[in-house]
Amino acid sequence: IEHTASATTADEPHLDPQSVVLAKRALQRGADGVVLRMCTELLQSYGQPIYRLRLWKVDSLETCLGVADALRTSLGDEAVVAVDTVDLRGSNSALLSVRTKAHATQVARALQGMRGITVTVTGVDCRSLVAEIAR
Q: How many CA atoms lie within 13 A of 122 on its CB side?
C-alpha cells in the first residue's frame, strides 16, 4: 500500500518528522490488517452469495431462532444462517444473514415451506429478502 502526503509551506514549521513517519507506519500497518481480513472474507464467501433477510412481526427470540434453524435445515449443510439483530421492543423485526449457493427465489421457497412457522415472503431482491411471520 502506497501513501503520500503533502504539506504547505505554512505547515512546515509545525511538522515533526518523527511523528509523521510513525503516523505513516501506523496507517500502513492498519491498512495491511484490513486488507488481510477483507481478502480472507472474500475467499471464504467466494461462490456463496450472502443474502440479508428482514423478518417482520417477530414476537420472541425463540421464534427468530426457530426460523433460522428451519431455514438452515431446508437449505442444506453448506448454508450458514446467522441472526444479526433482533428488535422486540420497537419494530418487532429481525435481520438475518444467509450465506448459501442457492438463488434468492430458492431461499424464498424455503422460507414459505417451513413447518410449524408460517412465513409470508413480501419482497425478493438481488441480495435481500423481506418476509413476515403470520400470527
A: 10
